[in-house]
């Protein structure tokens, strides 16, 4: 029986990094004698150009019929002036909503060999190991109405932050469960001093805390959380927060690791396929130049193997191979210092595949 993987390369550097990720997947399948069935779909700008919509029905059906989804990136300035329903990001949001991918997991840890690439002092990086759990199908990104209208003082715009208590409870409970299996500390991030939605979020977290007496719950306002991620990142174990706060904080946390090109993510539903993608964007300024860092995509593949297929050993081997390559001093441009030699996207992919073999026994 084959394990079905939908690959959505998308836009910008997406095709380059997913190409290397597919070769990595095929090598893992060969080394561990696994059966995989990889099929491709269009999403984002390329789908707009070729199909007239950012999420073709064929792509959505492909994803529904798959066991896991690997996404490259979507978007770019080419489509920035498109109407809202024809923006590449609309396709990604629609995919998340259609598959009910309510939970976005973004692990943050620092490879010791990349400590000098981080903008933080080395002593602040010691013991950094956290997971940001972001609610993914509610909040400002999905609330209605969204509108612009003429008012007495010119254009007026409306974006609505909408959540149900059930949506809050679902993601908070996942945060508690993850903390229970890690270091048992959950930081719930909100803006309860201003937003009514955050006050309900905090009340829901407090109610659930009674079911998890073994987990320490800490509340933190989002502006303080942004500061604490820089001041003392090792204090965090599991962070759980709503959609927009999670989007911003996880990108900030990415820079702790040295590059946004190093962070993977998983978007999960209660049932159905998970979606795995690097958290960086489409980087149109370097698209087609063979310069992109594929490591976040490789780490996303490792998350896929662990979360969707329960192939723990295979995931471990990928992560150890990446660690080895970095420890040997190999870097892509985003990780290198001015004047240092660096690898292309394809060369980094080849180095990681070469390093796999020593861990397969």
From TrEMBL:
SUPFAM superfamilies recorded: Isocitrate/Isopropylmalate dehydrogenase-like (SSF53659)
Q: Which residues bind Mg(2+)?
A: 223, 247, 251
What EC number(s) does this enzyme carry? 1.1.1.85
Compartment(s): Cytoplasm
Describe the reaction catalysed, as an equation.
Answer: (2R,3S)-3-isopropylmalate + NAD(+) = 4-methyl-2-oxopentanoate + CO2 + NADH
The alphabetized UniProt keywords are: Amino-acid biosynthesis, Branched-chain amino acid biosynthesis, Cytoplasm, Leucine biosynthesis, Magnesium, Manganese, Metal-binding, NAD, Oxidoreductase
Note how many cofactor molecules are bound and how. Binds 1 Mg(2+) or Mn(2+) ion per subunit.
Any one Gene Ontology molecular-function term assigned to this protein's record: 3-isopropylmalate dehydrogenase activity
Q: What is its main location?
A: cytoplasm
The UniProt record gives the binding positions of substrate as: 96, 106, 134, 223
Domain of life of the source: Bacteria
Look up keyword Metal-binding and say if it applies.
yes
Site (Important for catalysis) residue list: 141, 191
Q: Which residues bind NAD(+)?
A: 76-89, 281-293
- Give cofactor(s), names only: Mn(2+); Mg(2+)
Q: In which pathway does it act?
A: Amino-acid biosynthesis; L-leucine biosynthesis; L-leucine from 3-methyl-2-oxobutanoate: step 3/4
Looking up Pfam families in the UniProt record yields: Iso_dh (PF00180)
Q: Where is the Isopropylmalate dehydrogenase-like domain?
A: 4-352
Family under the similarity heading: Belongs to the isocitrate and isopropylmalate dehydrogenases family. LeuB type 1 subfamily.
Subunit structure and binding partners: Homodimer.
List, alphabetically, the PANTHER family matched: 3-ISOPROPYLMALATE DEHYDROGENASE
| Known role | Catalyzes the oxidation of 3-carboxy-2-hydroxy-4-methylpentanoate (3-isopropylmalate) to 3-carboxy-4-methyl-2-oxopentanoate. The product decarboxylates to 4-methyl-2 oxopentanoate.
**Protein name, please?**
3-isopropylmalate dehydrogenase
């Amino acid at each position: 029986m084959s394990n079905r993987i939908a690959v959505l390369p998308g836009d910008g550097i997406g095709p380059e990094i997913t190409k290397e990720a597919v070769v990595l997947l095929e090598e893992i399948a060969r080394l561990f004698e696994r059966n995989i069935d990889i099929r491709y779909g269009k999403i984002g700008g390329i789908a707009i150009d070729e199909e007239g919509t950012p999420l073709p029905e064929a792509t959505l059906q492909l994803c529904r019929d798959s066991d896991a989804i690997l996404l490259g990136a979507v978007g770019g300035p080419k489509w920035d002036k498109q109407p809202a329903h024809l923006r590449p990001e609309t396709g990604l949001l629609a995919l998340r909503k259609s598959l009910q991918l309510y939970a976005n997991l973004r692990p943050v840890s620092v490879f010791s060999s990349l400590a000098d690439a981080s903008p933080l002092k080395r002593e602040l990086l010691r013991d950094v190991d956290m997971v940001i759990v972001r609610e993914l199908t509610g909040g400002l990104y999905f609330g209605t109405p969204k509108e612009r209208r003429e008012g007495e003082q010119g254009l007026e715009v409306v974006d609505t932050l909408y959540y149900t208590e059930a949506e809050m409870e679902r993601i908070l409970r996942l945060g508690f469960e993850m903390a229970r299996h890690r270091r048992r500390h959950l930081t719930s991030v909100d803006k309860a001093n201003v937003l009514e939605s955050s006050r309900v979020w905090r009340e829901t977290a407090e109610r659930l805390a009674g079911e998890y007496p073994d987990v320490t719950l800490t509340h933190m306002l989002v502006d303080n959380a942004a500061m604490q991620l820089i001041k003392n990142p090792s204090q965090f174990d599991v962070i759980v927060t709503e959609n927009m706060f999670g989007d911003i904080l996880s990108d900030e946390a990415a820079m702790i690791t040295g590059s946004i090109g190093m962070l993977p993510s998983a978007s999960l539903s209660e049932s159905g396929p998970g979606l795995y993608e690097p958290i960086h964007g489409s980087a149109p300024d370097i698209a087609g130049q063979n310069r992109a860092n594929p490591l976040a995509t490789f780490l996303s593949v490792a998350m896929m193997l662990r979360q969707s297929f329960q192939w723990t050993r295979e995931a471990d081997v990928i992560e150890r191979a990446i660690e080895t390559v970095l420890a040997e001093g190999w870097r892509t441009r985003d990780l290198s210092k001015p004047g240092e030699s660096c690898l292309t996207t394809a060369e980094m992919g080849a180095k990681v595949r070469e390093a796999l073999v020593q861990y397969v026994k």
